[in-house]
Backbone:
């Protein structure tokens, strides 16, 4: 099993400048740009993202970056290692794993774990993924008591951390950069073509061992919670980049 590095080709953040129609047409002619690219071509390189930690750090700072997510989509689509990993999964998503994605948090844990342990694989040593949530507790090690969802994308992971007011209730946001170390737990790799393919998800069976290696405060962000009466609360909470190993 090979590591899938979505930042093997770094992601670049550029400022854009506006051009006249005449200049845009010249750029199309001389540089082969599309007309949309030529109307707002790249100007200055602002940031280069070459590691998963850098990606998580940026996501906590800017909160949204669809360009980063598109970069990861392209990297996965062009990765032979990812295609190989997808090929090891059944053609159709097993019912318990489909329900896990579609009906979370209402799912049958035992059935999901059984499907992952039967049909899943051990992810490559050194593979990096993202998880959004709260570490919880003072201990630096824990064993998961339910399936542990991860994504190739930090934007997806951050949305999960904020979902249904979780960050508001926790009083903090933890965006975890998860590194597979001494793989011992099976994981199921969801198809990118499925209904929830945009989540770029890999879910580990219960019983995975997690180790918190390092925690870094990046910034403070505003967390929200919507109530049943449609009123919304908000508060500022600290946001952390948490480096984690999983086995």
Residues:
């Amino acid at each position: 099993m090979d590591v899938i590095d979505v930042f093997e080709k770094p992601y670049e953040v550029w400022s854009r400048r506006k051009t006249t129609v005449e200049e845009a047409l010249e750029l199309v002619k001389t540089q082969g740009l599309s007309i949309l690219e030529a109307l707002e071509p790249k100007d200055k390189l602002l940031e280069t993202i070459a590691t998963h930690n850098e990606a998580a750090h940026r996501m906590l700072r800017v909160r949204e970056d669809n360009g980063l997510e598109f970069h990861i989509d392209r990297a996965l689509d062009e990765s032979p290692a990812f295609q190989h990993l997808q090929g090891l999964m059944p053609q159709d998503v097993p019912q318990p794993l489909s329900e896990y994605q579609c009906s979370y948090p209402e799912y049958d844990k035992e059935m999901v774990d059984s499907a992952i342990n039967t049909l899943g694989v051990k992810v490559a040593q050194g593979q990096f993924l993202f998880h959004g949530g709260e570490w919880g507790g003072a201990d630096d090690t824990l064993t998961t008591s339910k399936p542990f969802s991860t994504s190739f994308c930090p934007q997806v992971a951050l949305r999960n951390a904020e979902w249904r007011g979780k960050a508001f209730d926790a009083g903090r946001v933890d965006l975890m950069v998860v590194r597979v170390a001494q793989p011992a737990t099976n994981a199921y790799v969801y198809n990118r073509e499925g209904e929830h393919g945009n989540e770029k998800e890999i879910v580990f069976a219960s019983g995975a061992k997690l180790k918190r290696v390092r925690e870094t405060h990046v910034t403070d962000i505003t967390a929200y919670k919507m109530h049943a009466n449609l009123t919304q609360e908000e508060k500022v909470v600290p946001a952390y980049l948490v480096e984690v190993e999983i086995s």
Remarks:
- The first helix runs from residue 21 to 31.
- The chain has nine helices and ten strands.
- The beta strands are 11-16, 42-49, 128-133, 141-143, 148-151, 173-180, 187-189, 201-204, 209-226, 232-246.
- The mean pLDDT is 92.
